[in-house]
UniProtKB/TrEMBL annotation:
Residues 183-217 form a coiled coil. Keywords: Coiled coil. Pfam families: DEDD_Tnp_IS110 (PF01548), Transposase_20 (PF02371). Residues 226-299 form the Transposase IS116/IS110/IS902 C-terminal domain. This is Uncharacterized protein. Signal peptide: none annotated. GO terms for biological process: DNA transposition. Residues 10-158 form the Transposase IS110-like N-terminal domain. It comes from Vibrio halioticoli NBRC 102217.
């Protein structure tokens, strides 16, 4: 955060119906007072901010990222009031403090904001937020698809019906439609499961259509295309990664983005004793899963096959292709060397996924100023 002299630092503890407000004086040991609770309605917030500006002049406001979203942030920006949305997981806390309420939370935010101890989060624009909602809705629908298929398989297994060939192909679905059961009630239960699966798949198709419609209007559309230069990174994975991570340039180096997604090794050391642990697993679980899925493409030798060429968007630039080939050479060798040393394939894939994320960052930085 830039060093600007503010006349007051405002901490807001935001809830659905109310907002607790605290004000910290600019002096290091200055007064921090609890202002009170106001309604979270837009009109009440505007009245409060006008009053605070009249009393203090230049102010800096903060509140925690949470379920209320970024509407308050955008409202304050429209009033030319500087605001920061802070990461709840990065707020310093005293372990012996066993009392928590809105009053204390607001005062703590104001105090820590004045001290510069808060870490802000990246706030997406409205289009980006809509794309992220679509991607998350699609991810939920895919999970529902897995559950629906398991239910169908379970009822078939209980009744001794087996399909010996590849499942969920066109032939398999025809076979499923032709299954019959001795009791009408059991047939109805089975048809219910099949209809549920069809409805979920229709939802996924509708979400895909809406993603396609919104994609050209997205400010990060070009980055989605450039990331598809990488082997294993298809359209869905590229959109999901960009939707969740947003602007890659907010990370000054690849190690930061690796740590952000919990792909770096943990450590618990003291004195001369060094204890290494597995990856920290911080950040987005679903995004980490997608990176693992992409990393499996690097088990074989480096090769630019016809499938990769055919599925790359035409707008992929030569710089992205060069980085993609460099990534293939390194990551394919990395996987084979780790397995040859006796590492489990899952551990090797984790290492590949971590470095693949670094190559994504490289593409994002290299092609930042390009347009579709």
């Amino acid at each position: 955060m830039e060093s600007v002299n503010y006349s007051a630092y405002i901490g807001l503890d935001v809830h659905k119906d109310t907002i607790a407000v605290a004000i910290a004086s600019p002096e290091r040991q200055g007064e921090i007072r609890f202002y009170g609770n106001i309604s979270s309605a837009k009109e009440a917030v505007i009245r409060l901010m006008k009053k605070l500006i009249k009393l203090h002049g230049s102010i800096l406001v903060c509140y925690e990222a949470g379920p209320t979203g970024y509407g308050l942030y955008r409202l304050l920006l429209s009033m030319n009031i500087e605001c920061t949305v802070v990461a709840p997981s990065r707020i310093p806390k005293i372990s012996t403090n066993k009392i928590k309420n809105d009053h204390r939370d607001a005062v703590a935010l104001a105090r820590l904001l004045r001290a510069g101890e808060l870490v802000d989060v990246w706030v997406p624009d409205i289009t980006h937020e809509a794309m992220r909602d679509l991607v998350r809705a699609r991810s939920c629908a895919k999970k529902d698809t897995k559950v629906a298929k398991q239910r169908i398989q379970s009822i078939l297994l209980r009744t001794g019906k087996k399909y010996e060939k590849k499942m969920w192909t066109v032939r398999h679905r025809v076979w499923l439609a032709n299954q019959s059961f001795p009791l009408a009630s059991q047939q109805i239960a089975y048809e219910h499961y099949r209809q549920s699966l069809e409805q979920i798949e229709n939802r996924i198709e509708q979400l895909d259509q809406e993603i396609d419609r919104l994609l050209p209007n997205w400010s990060l559309y070009n980055l989605v295309n450039q990331l598809q230069a990488l082997k294993g990174v298809g359209r869905t994975i590229a959109i999901s990664v960009v939707a969740e991570l947003g602007d890659f340039s907010r990370f000054s180096n690849p190690k930061q983005i690796m740590a952000f997604l919990g792909l770096i090794p943990g450590e618990h050391s003291s004195g001369s004793v060094t204890r290494k642990a597995g990856i920290t697993k911080a950040g987005n679980v679903e995004l980490r899963r997608l990176l693992y899925e992409a990393a499996w493409a690097y088990r074989n030798n480096a090769k630019v096959g016809s499938w990769l060429i055919a599925n790359r968007p035409n707008s992929v630039c030569q710089e992205a292709k060069d980085i993609s080939w460099k990534a293939q050479q390194r990551l394919c060798f990395r996987y084979r060397s780790l397995v040859a040393k006796g590492k489990k394939s899952q551990i090797a894939i984790t290492a590949v996924a971590r470095e693949l994320l670094g190559f994504m960052w490289d593409i994002a930085v290299t092609t930042r100023n390009q347009r579709v």
